[in-house]
Write a structure and sequence with these properties.
By secondary structure, the protein is α+β, with helices and mostly antiparallel strands. The protein has helices at about 5-10, 30-45, 75-80, 85-90, 135-145, 160-165, and strands spanning about 20-25, 25-30, 50-55, 70-75, 100, 110-115, 125-135, 155-160. Strands 1, 2, 3, 4, 5, 6, 7 and 8 form an eight-stranded antiparallel sheet that branches. Helix 2 packs antiparallel against helix 5. The two termini are about 15 Å apart.
């Protein structure tokens, strides 16, 4: 997790004092791709994305923050979310680490986890998961759009409570 994002998390500042939308279990990448496209579309409508920042999210790995991030355009991100293999490569740079996406204003945060295929049997599909931290009205818009799109168990809960469960 980028150090400025990490600082907001520790101080329970936006977007970590709002809600988190997540799934209770991992989803096939084919489904996750579509979910990510919907999420980014709504985030773009709500926050007018120009540059998207990407960093390693080490929260559950070793809890350390990182100093740098890579900038992506919305077009680059959409290209990644259009292709299952690109998504796998994008989200699986390091086993057990998530990828964090955020804006320079730090008003939303997206955590993506892609399971390393080494941990799956030959017959299992590639899988992953996502968490979205944003203000309540954006989370509500995302949830409404995803209701018809997913068969997974979608959860919305207080971000602080969830972070305490997984990290503190």
């Amino acid at each position: 997790m980028y150090d400025k994002v990490y600082g907001r998390l520790l101080r329970c500042m936006s977007p970590f004092h709002h809600k988190v939308l997540r799934f209770n279990y991992d989803l096939p990448l084919e489904q996750l791709k579509e979910i990510l496209k919907t999420i980014v579309e709504i985030i773009d409508q709500s926050y007018n994305l120009d540059i998207i920042c990407k960093s390693q999210d080490r929260l559950e790995y070793d809890g350390r923050a990182c100093k740098g991030y890579k900038e992506l355009t919305l077009s680059e991100l959409k290209t990644i979310f259009d292709d299952e293999q690109l998504l796998y490569n994008f989200g699986n740079e390091h086993a057990w680490m998530k990828v964090g996406l955020f804006s320079e204003k730090l008003d939303w945060y997206l955590r993506i986890f892609i399971e390393d295929e080494k941990n799956l049997s030959r017959l299992e599909p590639k899988i992953g998961n996502v968490e979205v931290y944003a203000c309540d009205d954006v989370i509500a818009k995302i949830a409404k759009q995803l209701e018809d799109q997913t068969v997974g168990h979608m959860l919305i809960e207080g971000a602080k409570k969830y972070i305490e469960e997984i990290y503190i």
